[in-house]
Amino acid sequence: MSRKNYVFTSESVSEGHPDKLCDQISDAVLDALLAEDPSARVACETFATTDRVIIGGEIGLNDQARLVRFRDCVDQIARDVIRDIGYDQDKFSWRSCEVTNLLHEQSAEIWGGHDKGVGNGGAGDQGIMFGYAVDETEALMPAPIQYAHAILRRLAEARHTGEQPSLGPDAKAQLSVRYEDGRPVGVTQIVVSHQHTDENQSSDDIRRLVEPYVDEVLPAGWLSDDTVWHVNPTGKFVIGGPDGDAGLTGRKIIVDTYGGAAPHGGGAFSGKDPSKVDRSAAYAARYLAKNVVAAGLARRCVIQLSYAIGVAEPLSIYADTFDTGSVNETEIEAALRKVMDLTPSGIRRHLALDRPIYRRTAAYGHFGRAPDADGGFSWERTDLAEALKAAV
Predict the structure, then answer these.
(1) Which end of the chain, N or C, is more open, meaning fewer C-beta atoms within 10 Å of its C-beta?
(2) Which residues are catalytic?
């Protein structure tokens, strides 16, 4: 029997966290290549440290001349991301940091794997991917990660607009959420560590600054006199970003997904084009799980998909509704195959993934966001709900 009363904790990190900066650079490179060629193949990794950014990995375009020209654009892509996030400090600035571009052409053997599936194109790699949805928030996301993201997004907005000019780009938030009878009802502990530019500001000063924004985004009544706050608990946090700690693409996979509330296949998302099932099938699994919950077939659902390199059809589809379902999981698994083509090509077509829509995903979570008018976050739609209800 699942527990009904407990405390669960998730964390988020800001767009200026060193790892998230690297994720955004990798996805900005991906977006630029997809804008050149929707069939671009990209596996881009970024490393950042004091006054240095190194970009490497494999890229491929059908037009080799365009690929050669693109290499000259990478330096500016990285600097634009760093500038947009807000880094212009002494030892890490978009103006002066050294950018090293080590991107090279993708292996012909990997490229060939995409074409081996009959009529559909095979998966770019083997692997397992998970998607999750739960009805405890409007976005059908776990409450701890959803609200941890919301806190940092609101603080970033206040920083970018100049409302709070003493805030720096680097930050973390962590929420310990209390559940009663399986539903989130309050916050027992909250951690906010936020970079600040005024060396005279104390932890108490930063708490007074951030507390109104936290209160604004959390549901009414979730903060109480019993909530324990930890704001900049080590004291000053002036040195932030890659100057304070190195960053690397793909290190925040739990922040990117469900905050630890659901299984994770292990593959990172950022810097990978949608032929990589690490990314596209994880998006599809979230899409399917969210539509199962939106259709009323379960209050909570996890979906697992598995693939082999060069093979188009998924090897397996698994559903678990944690005893909250109105139909048997085997019926849901059969219905999922009916309502969506889950080959890599089918996923890319259904969710229109071959577009430059990825940099925006690389901070504040890949899931739980409203679909954008240009097709971004298409995997957050609930347009399969009626078809699923009809198929079970």
Answers:
(1) N
(2) 17, 19-20, 45, 58, 172, 237, 245-246, 251-252, 272, 276, 278
Distance CA(283)–CA(267), nearest Å, equals 12
CA distances from 113 to 16, 160, 170, 307 (A): 36, 43, 39, 12
Determine the pLDDT at residue 119: 42
Structure tokens at 225: 């006199």
For the chain, what is the radius of gyration of the CA atoms? 21
> What is the separation, in whole angstroms, between the first and last Cα of the chain?
26
**How much is the pTM?**
0.95
Query: What pLDDT score does 69 carry?
Result: 77
* CA 207, 209, 211, 214 torsion-angle sign: negative
Residue type, 322: F
Question: Tokens standing for 152?
Answer: 């940092």
> Sign of the C-alpha dihedral, residues 286, 289, 295, 296?
negative
pLDDT tens digits, residue range 185-224?
999 999 999 999 999 999 999 999 999 999 999 999 999 9
pLDDT at residue number 115:
45
Q: What is the pLDDT of residue 108?
A: 56
Pairing of strands 41-49, 52-60: antiparallel
The answer to whether the beta carbons of residues 359 and 292 sit under 8 Å apart is: no
Q: Considering only CA atoms, which of 252, 228, 262 is closest in space to residue 130?
A: 262
DSSP 82: H
184: tokens are: 């989130």
pLDDT under 50: residue ranges of the chain: 113, 115-119
Residue type for position 314? P
Q: Which residues contact 266 (CB under 8 A, 6 or more apart)?
A: 127, 128, 253
The C-alpha angle 261, 281, 374, rounded to 5 degrees, equals 100
Residues pairing with 192 in the sheet: 173, 231
